[in-house]
Amino acid sequence: MTSLRPQGLCPHLFVRDAESAIAFYREGLGAVEVFRNTLSDGTILFVELQLGAGRLLVSEETPGLGALAPPTLGGSPVLILLEVGDPDAMAERAIDAGAEVEQPVREVFWGERYGVLRDPFGHRWAVTTAREQLTPDEIVRGTTYRSEED
What we know:
The chain has four helices and eight strands; from the N terminus they run βαβββαβαβββα. It has helices at residues 18-29, 70-73, 87-96, 136-145; strands at residues 12-15, 32-38, 44-51, 54-60, 79-83, 100-107, 112-118, 124-130. It comes from Nonomuraea polychroma.
């Protein structure tokens, strides 16, 4: 019997310019290319990137296959969480490489240092690291006395 237990999770992002996206993820987030699969015409079917302990697939937008990039869809409803040792430094690195700030990195009521960026291809990234381990009750209490500016 095959185990139904998941072995991992690998987001698959569709972009309008895969080469530029791969360069951004390498420069801005520290990704390392692991594998590249291209079609005979040179179109990137997908590139597998190592990003910390996780993997990320990047493919060229292919409307005929329903593989659409965020600008085609009017934005992205997905937020990819990237845990790092220093979210401030990671945000700065990503911004220097072309990301835009949606929410600056700051201390948040649930006990992390957390910020949200949008990469040049429309994908949204939260950069975070746990600061304190709070119980659900502590998190709920935190929402009553800490503002967005904290």
